[in-house]
Amino acid sequence: MHASYQLHFSDHVGMFLKNYQKIQNRNNKIRN
């Protein structure tokens, strides 16, 4: 793996995790 590709990939994972947390928070609000 090239370093630049790895950095790009971790950026995408970070964005995915942030969006995932937002969705989880929304789901928790609906449930409670």
Automatic annotation (TrEMBL):
It comes from the Bacteria. This is Uncharacterized protein. It comes from Cupriavidus necator.
